[in-house]
Each structure stands twice: as C-alpha cells, then as structure tokens.
Amino acid sequence: MNHKFVQTVAAFLIVGIVLSAVPLSYAQTTILSFGPKLEVVTIPQDYQEANTGVMILGLGTGVLGAPALTGAPTDFMSQHKLLITYNGMTLTWAVGTPGPLVFCNFLEKDKVNVVADPKTGLGKQGSYENLMTTLVDVSAKFICKVRWKSPAPGVLESAGVLDVYYTGPNLFPVLDSFGTNTNLATAKSVGYWIADTIMVVEASLGVGRTVIFGSDLQDICVLGWAVTGNGAGPGSMTPVAPTWIITKPDGTQHYIWQNPMGAFHSCEDIALAQRDLLGIPLPQGQDPLSTT
Length: 292
Hints:
- There is one protein chain.
- By secondary structure, the protein is mostly beta strands.
- It has 2 domains: 1-32; 43-78 and 101-143 and 160-285, no CATH class.
- The chain has 4 helices and 14 strands.
- Strands 1, 3, 4, 5, 8 and 9 form a 6-stranded antiparallel sheet that branches. Strands 2, 6, 7, 10, 11 and 14 form a 6-stranded mixed sheet that branches. Strands 12-13 form a two-stranded antiparallel sheet.
- Strand 12 and strand 13 (253-256) form a beta hairpin.
C-alpha cells in the first residue's frame, strides 16, 4: 500500500472533521491557507491623532490677505512605520542580497459632478447620483524610500520606516544662468495636487521558485497650507505659521505644525475647501456605468 497516499487521505479526513465541528456562520467566512503568507503593516506618523500622513505644498503665503509667512513653509515628506513579516516572523538578509521588494502606488481621490453627456444623454446610474468619486493615478509625482532596521553590521531586517516624498510641481524658484526664475507654476496650478491621497504599499518576496505578495493601504493628506479651521467659510482657511522651525545643517529649514488640519476632521473636506478657495472648480463627468 502507498503509505504517502494513506497519510494524505488521513490529513484531509482530519480537516473535514474539524470543519464539521465549526458553526456554519463561522465556517462560511473561514478560508484555509496552506501557503506562505507575506503581511505588510504601515502606520502614519505625521498626524497621529487623525491617523494620516500629511504634506504641505506651501501655498498659504498671502492667501485671504493674511500676512506673508517667512519663506515658503512646506513639508514635502510623509513618514510611515513599516513592518513586513513572513508567516508571522520578520525577515533578515545580508546587505547586497535579495530581500523583500517594496513599491508604492498613489491614487488621488477627486469628487466629480455627475452630469448627462450632451451626445448620449447618459450620465448617471440614478437621480441620486449628483457626485461621485473618481481615482487618478498620481504615482509619477510621489516616491517612497524604505529605511530598514540594521540589527548587526551588514544585516537588514524587515522593520523600519517608509519615507514618502512629493516630487510634483511647487513654487520654489528655478533660476537659469541669468538669474531669471523659470518656474511658471502658480498657486492655482500647484493647487490641483491638493487632495485626499491613497497610498498603496506593496511588497514581494521570492521564496524558492515562487514569488509571494502582500500589501497595505494608507492615507496621505496633501494640503496647500496648514489652517486654523476656526469659524465658518473662508475664515476657517486662514493660514497658520509653523509651530516650530528647525534650521538644518545645510541651512534649509524644517517646519513643524502642531495641527495642520485645524478643526477639520476630514482630509477630503479640507482639500475640497482649499481647492475651491484657489478657484479650482469641481470637474464634471459621467458615470461609466450610467443608465440614465
């Protein structure tokens, strides 16, 4: 008799007995997993109370007639703790040898006013659909860099920090050889990047001839400027100067805000308000699944 066959049959019988003892409501949502598992966990560090990353594009100088802030207070970096585990354990590998690969995708959430297409008359799935959310891939304007833990010289471990950088349009002067600023960006043109942005962090790991994957999701609130959030209407958008300014060794400055979102609790709400204040209207469009 083939003993391996008997052992295999016995294993499946045991699994069947275990599942038969599980309540149906629980068994319906239980998925048995026999393969390797790669898990990715990220935790935003910029605004821990709101559990979101935050970036400041430095568009607040002179907004609403407010006094010009010193320089152009910006924060183009968002920081997130990162942990990758393989079957519940962190990974270690020698510098120069393959470890887990990490890559990031960025999606901008935009609100669109749903209207009928002038040619087809279609636009909505129903009369209730006046606004819808669309997603725009903005990965080309952001980059993420992993900073792994090093438990010993020449060794890396899959726990650390994910530094995320905004690389899109900004208002910083770009001088040519004649000292002329060639950066033609305006507060409004840069303001199109103000958004509630989704960051998808994906990781892959080669295990023998197999590649396994894991992923996590985080928020980054990209703001034009930090606000007080006090009162209603334009007053809630009054720019706030940095709470603290640190001069770095190279002479540049690092800005810290105590509460960049002010009294706002929703990144989408404050982003919509700032875009509106800059004269950026809600776009119009049609639901691709429209029936009316």
